[in-house]
Amino acid sequence: MKNYFILFFMIIGVSVLSQENRPNILFIMSDDHAYQAISAYSDKLIQTPNIDKIAEEGILFSNACVTNSICAPSRATILTGKFSHLNGKVDNIFPFDTTQMTFPQLFQKAGYQTAMFGKLHFGNNPKGFDDFLILPGQGHYINPKFIGKEKDTIISGYVTDIITDLTLNWFKKKRNKDKPFLMMYLHKAPHRAWWPSPEKFAEFYEKEFPLPETLFDDYSNRSSASSSAEMNIFKHMQLMQDNKVYPQTIQEMGEMVKDITYTGENREIRKAGAWEFNYPFKRANKDQEEKYRKTLDKISFDFKSKWPHMSDQEKTIWKYQRYMQDYLATISSVDDNVGRVLDYLKDNGLENNTIVIYTSDQGFYLGEHGWFDKRFIYNESFKIPLLIRWPNKIVPGITNDEMVQNLDFAQTFLEAAKIKSPKDMQGKSLIPLLLGENRKWKRDAVYYHYYEFPSVHMVKRHYGIVSKEYKLVHYYYDINEWEFFDRKTDPNELVNVYNEPKYQIALSKMKKKLVKLRKIYKDSDELSQKYIY
Ligand code: CA
What we know:
Elements: H1 2-21, E1 24-30, H2 49-56, E2 59-61, E3 64-65, H3 71-80, H4 84-87, H5 103-109, E4 113-118, E5 131-134, E6 145-148, E7 153-154, H6 159-173, E8 181-186, H7 198-205, H8 224-228, H9 233-236, H10 250-258, H11 265-272, H12 274-278, H13 286-306, H14 312-347, E9 354-360, H15 379-382, E10 386-389, E11 398-400, E12 404-405, H16 409-416, H17 431-434, E13 445-450, E14 462-467, E15 470-475, E16 481-486, H18 504-520, H19 525-530
Parallel strand pairs: 1-8, 1-9, 2-11, 3-12, 4-5, 4-8
Antiparallel strand pairs: 2-10, 5-6, 6-7, 9-10, 13-14, 14-15, 15-16
Helix pairs in contact: 6-14, 7-13, 7-14
Calcium ion binds next to loops.
């Protein structure tokens, strides 16, 4: 009898131990959050003390990047652990095949409690979640609608605060304390059109930001893809929709649009005109509208008094400042709200056994190369912020410069949770890097492939390979041009050295590696044809 008792307690003990060994996962992702707008990476633009804390108490990756710099494809890669050409979600247009295995489904099967709140932007409801409330498509910043498992709902307030309220509410009321959790807490901010809360809108309107070195890039020394892209702050950013200049009359609106060169996407927006501008007010109540109008009136007054007398260069700077004021104001709300969730973990004894990840679905141009938006393999949209905290596992405050990708997330989380990864996932678990076992990490370059062309912003189709030293890019479809950058001597990627004699040996090596990587990852010209429309 005594032996049975011992056996019984041993089994209980083992099961308690294995529960303890399975960490909770809190995955925080924002939409279009550039690493340049996180003070752990650079404090030139904004202070983000709460997000920074994750790196201060964990690890910061300085060479983390995406496989395809656009929203839905990045999310598909994160969920499936596969490149776009295999998971099929190559751009925001092609549908996602929901019969595919995604890592949250594996977590749910393995006994994790799973929940998702915020922006999925996928065209489908998420699979593998016990609870979710997600924004339909891009969603709204003000008084947003949410799609739920059982019913849809409209919640009053500002989207970043609401997504956090939903997340905290789930922790307080729905979390099953006998199970580990996987929480995906996904912000809509700072996605275009960068609408801050009324309070942050007023606060950030008073600020002025330093100009990026390449704001007036003339796109010389590079492929034609740079100069033909339609995401230039001066030429393509909308005074009304983006810069929030509020015309009092139709006549004023006509005056306002005269100065801007409209091309591609913007012709369509111009047609939509006032509707696009009035977008948040379609949803605002009187009180919210009143608060916004105070700042909008100041913007309008400033615009009217200065714009007619400005040079093109001054106009670019004016629009850049307006852009940064709003973009960074939305980030400030994200940071405040991340702080609320981190505080909850701490106050409820969840800090030690929870892995916290902060990232974005891609990077973003904050005036570098004169641009806003993303899509290109150039640093600012190719790289992502990646900060991970895992107490007692990750040495606090370390930085890692290995080439890691969003492709690696699924296998990392699965390994941390002791769940077997499907064989067809294409990434690598980052666990060795988190534990400081860098010698076990063998990858010297990553692969990238962007598809969405012709489409908004007109960034041409391209694929490429990136190591710590070099970046090799091939633009195809309607052009056939190559670029080669020396990342060490030319961090701003201004000079294409593809034809320079002294780079021919390095170039030839990178070309061979590119062929090899395409083969390993099962990408090919034939497969690219499948995704042409
Ligand atoms: Ca995005």
